[in-house]
Amino acid sequence: MSRYLVTAFRTPQFDPLVIDEHRAFLDNLREQGKLELAGPFTDQSGGAYLIKAENLEEAEALAFSDPVHTSKSSIVSVYEWNAK
């Protein structure tokens, strides 16, 4: 398993109502053992989370199913990360 950093930056269409769905999404990843860390940026521009996946395709599939992405509330990007 590799680690992937997911960033989510808010768009002008950001809908605060999506936050509860986003948190439930992260809780589900945590229950599956795929989420290591998550949190918002202090400047309120978005947030990031660290997931474990077999490959980039799996990581992107997970991240792009995040409600903040599917609702177009945030721009989500995924990076393989060799954190130590």
Describe this structure in words.
With 84 residues, this protein is of the alpha+beta class. It has a single domain, classed as Alpha-Beta Plaits (2-Layer Sandwich). The protein is 30% helix and 36% strand. It is built from three helices and four strands. The protein has helices at residues 19-31, 56-63, 67-70; strands at residues 2-10, 35-40, 46-53, 74-80. A four-stranded antiparallel sheet has the order 2-3-1-4. A hairpin with a 5-residue loop joins β2 and β3. The model has no long low-confidence stretch (mean pLDDT 97).
Report the CATH topology name. Answer: Alpha-Beta Plaits
Radius of gyration: 12 Å
Largest sheet: 4 strands, antiparallel
Average of the residue pLDDT scores = 97
Distance between the termini: 14 Å
Helix-strand category: alpha+beta
Find the CATH superfamily.
Answer: Dimeric alpha+beta barrel
Tell me which CATH architecture applies here: 2-Layer Sandwich
DSSP helical segment count:
3
